Structure formats: C-alpha cells, structure tokens
Amino acid sequence: MKKLIWIFLAAVMVLSAPAVSSAVAQSDTVLLVVPSRYSVMQVAFDVARRYPTVLVSYQGTLEEPVLHVWNGYEWMALSLTDYQTGAFLQTYPDRTAFLGDDALLPAELRAINAWCNQVVQLPNLETHELVNGIGRYIPFTPADWRWFAGRYNLTLTNLKAEEAEAARRESWYDESAPVRSPKPGLFKYFTRSRRTRAPEGDAAIQPIEIPAADVVEIPAP
User: Fold this and answer.
1) With left for phi above 0 and alpha for psi between -120 and 50, is residue 15 left, alpha or beta?
2) pTM recorded for the entire structure
C-alpha cells in the first residue's frame, strides 16, 4: 500500500512540475540590436510595427554594455549572459541585424552564433540608410517601402527598373557604354573581303590543250 502511495505522489509531482522547453527558431522574426538613440529607436519601432521583431537596446561602454529588451510594454534589464545564450527568448529569430559601426557596437554583442548564425551589421545610422539596409535584409514588401517612404518623406527609386533602362540603352558599338557581354565575332567565312585583295593584273589567255583520246565509232542506225 505504501508503495502505491509513493508511486502516486511521484506521478503528481511530475504532472505538477512546470514544463521546461527549449526555444525554437522562428523563420519570420528578426532581432534588432539597436543603440539607445532616439532616431535609430524610432526606425526600429517602426520596423516592429510592420514585421515580427525583437528589440534589444545597448548603451554604456564597449567593455561594459548595458542591455535592455522590449517586452511589448516596457524596457526590461537584460544580462549579457542571457543575451548571448538566448535564455530571454521563447523562440529564436532566424536573423539578426546589428545597428552601429565597430566604434559603437560592443564586440560581445555579436557572440550569438549558438542560436542565430544569419547576421548582418549596418554601420550607417542615417535614417534613409537604416531603412534601405533593414528593408533589403528582411526584406520589405512593396507596401512596406511605400509606408516608410511616406513616414520619413523619402523618395522611392526602383533600382531594377533603372538597371533595365540602362541595359536597354546600351549600344554594341558605343565604346563609352558598359558592355555586359563581348561583341560577336565575325564569321570565319567573312574574315577576308574580296574588295581588299590585291589585283592580280590582266593575265594572258592561254590555249587549253586537249590530250588525244581513244575514239569509239558508233555506226549509224
């Protein structure tokens, strides 16, 4: 009887214990590691409005960075260890964008290869450069590009259309224009022109000698 009671208690303890599960990667989420600057934060929050985003801010010094993570309502303190191991995440973003150059971004913040190996660093913190860099990396949809252009009073330029137009205007015979492929070579049958051949002069007509041959007589019918 006592043995059955112990088995029952053990089962209750297992069922009542909190479930612990490791985080898994989520393919449609990006982690933005952002310096604590107003204009940069504004772009980061706008990205989060349009795309699933985890925001981590950094400040302090290169040797002792101070980190915070946005939980959707407020900034929460984040230790460097929890950040590097991904312990603060329920799901791992499949890509990360570090904002800031090497003089601003602490090297320790790049040590997240254990849970995210697709990363990019965007050193230029100008608003239009951030929008372009993040937009190409995520990437943005046409609606996203239009939204950010209106938000920050930016001019949209279709680079692919410009490249296509430049290619259309290229001429095979314009040496100043960039040529994407070599000009076609001449066919081997036209490597010599009859017009360029030197005249051979008027040659005397020589009689043609017809050698004697056997004659076969065929009687008339």
Assistant:
1) alpha
2) 0.63
The answer to whether the CB of 103 falls within 8 A of the CB of 96 is: no
| Omega prior to 139 cis, within 30 of 0 | yes
**Pairing status of strand 53-60 against strand 24-35:** parallel
Rounded-to-integer distance, Cα 79 and Cα 82, Å = 5
> Domain segments of the chain: what residues?
24-139
27 and 52 Cβ atoms separated by less than 8 Å: no
Quick check: bond before 35 cis, omega within 30?
A: no
Please identify which residue in the block is written with the tokens 């051949």.
197
Contact at 8 Å (CB) between 152 and 128?
Answer: yes
Q: Is the pLDDT of residue 157 over 90?
A: no
> 24-139: what fold?
Rossmann fold (3.40.50)
Any idea which residue has 């009671």 for tokens?
A: 5
Q: Which residues contact 172 (CB under 8 A, 6 or more apart)?
A: 179, 183
Looking at 25-39, 76-90, 95-109, 200-214, which range is the least confident one? Answer: 200-214
**Residue 167, SS3 per DSSP:** helix
